[in-house]
């Protein structure tokens, strides 16, 4: 057993755990040896240049992710029937979702080159953050609103600057402008109609925010229930605008 080659004192408390040896200098790194031990306390003597590290699955996870409260999922819906009826389930689907984007272009009137298909708005929110944010970058959130923006920002190591909505749930555009000037956030997530209150962001407010040096992500998950038109077409005019739409509310298809 390689423990006999070590010098120094290391205490390990373990329930059937693995111990690996790692030498401190890269040039003298030697092949790790691993052993399984039953619940016991270990006092191991090791050589000066050798440290012992207890490796658990969690040790690989970024520390700030370990601090997040776990997401509480609902039970998944039955999808096996649909999957079972797929013609070529063993072939990777088109990564560019060309047929779907062509259909969406027809439905929305916006050309397909402006459209990116994702696995629900949730995935797109996360993808946007991963593309845009470096750790410690700032994101503006306007609560009360959909909580995934805050959650995904935490997952992506970003800082959330909250600009609460006014008592009538409208956006505090002046405060948003101040925050953008002072905190230099990279992006802002806006929801219209808003979850939970259903309030709509006016053209005037949206145009003022689009004039700021910030990426604006406008989440229109509930637009079909509002009686107003989507701002999808606005992306042609405003380079800093992304509009999110989803089938999950419009068609009750939470898996698309
Ligand atoms: C405002 C808002 N955006 C996005 C989503 C998530 O959409 P999807 O089901 O497409 O991931 C929700 C879900 O509740 C939502 O309320």
UniProtKB/TrEMBL annotation:
<keyword id="KW-0808">Transferase</keyword>
<comment type="pathway">
    <text>Amino-acid biosynthesis; L-histidine biosynthesis; L-histidine from 5-phospho-alpha-D-ribose 1-diphosphate: step 7/9.</text>
</comment>
<dbReference type="GO" id="GO:0030170">
    <property type="term" value="F:pyridoxal phosphate binding"/>
</dbReference>
<dbReference type="InterPro" id="IPR015422">
    <property type="entry name" value="PyrdxlP-dep_Trfase_small"/>
</dbReference>
<dbReference type="GO" id="GO:0004400">
    <property type="term" value="F:histidinol-phosphate transaminase activity"/>
</dbReference>
<dbReference type="InterPro" id="IPR015421">
    <property type="entry name" value="PyrdxlP-dep_Trfase_major"/>
</dbReference>
<keyword id="KW-0032">Aminotransferase</keyword>
<feature type="domain" description="Aminotransferase class I/classII large">
    <location>
        <begin position="91"/>
        <end position="253"/>
    </location>
</feature>
<dbReference type="InterPro" id="IPR004839">
    <property type="entry name" value="Aminotransferase_I/II_large"/>
</dbReference>
<dbReference type="Pfam" id="PF00155">
    <property type="entry name" value="Aminotran_1_2"/>
</dbReference>
<keyword id="KW-0663">Pyridoxal phosphate</keyword>
<protein>
    <recommendedName>
        <fullName>histidinol-phosphate transaminase</fullName>
        <ecNumber>2.6.1.9</ecNumber>
    </recommendedName>
</protein>
<dbReference type="InterPro" id="IPR015424">
    <property type="entry name" value="PyrdxlP-dep_Trfase"/>
</dbReference>
């Amino acid at each position: 057993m390689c423990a006999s080659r070590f010098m120094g004192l290391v205490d390990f408390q373990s329930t059937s755990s693995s111990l690996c040896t790692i030498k401190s200098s890269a040039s003298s790194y030697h092949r790790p040896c691993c052993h399984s031990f039953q619940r016991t306390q270990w006092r191991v003597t090791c050589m000066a240049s050798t440290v012992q590290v207890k490796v658990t699955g969690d040790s690989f996870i970024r520390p700030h992710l370990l601090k997040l409260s776990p997401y509480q999922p609902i039970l998944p819906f039955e999808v096996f029937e649909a999957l079972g009826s797929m013609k070529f389930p063993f072939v990777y689907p088109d990564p560019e979702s060309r047929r779907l984007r062509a259909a969406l272009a027809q439905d929305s009137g916006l050309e397909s080159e402006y459209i990116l298909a994702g696995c629900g708005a949730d995935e797109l929110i996360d993808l946007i953050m991963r593309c845009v944010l470096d750790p410690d970058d700032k994101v503006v959130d306007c609560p009360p609103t959909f909580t995934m923006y805050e959650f995904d920002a935490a997952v992506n190591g970003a800082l959330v600057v909250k600009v609460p909505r006014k008592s009538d749930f409208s956006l505090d555009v002046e405060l948003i402008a101040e925050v953008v000037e002072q905190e230099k956030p990279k992006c802002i997530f806006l929801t219209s109609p808003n979850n939970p209150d259903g309030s709509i962001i006016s053209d005037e407010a949206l145009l003022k925010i689009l004039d700021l040096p910030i990426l604006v992500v406008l989440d229109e998950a509930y637009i079909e229930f509002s009686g107003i038109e989507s701002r999808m077409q606005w992306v042609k005019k405003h380079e800093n605008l992304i509009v999110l739409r989803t089938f999950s509310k419009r068609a009750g298809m939470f898996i698309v």
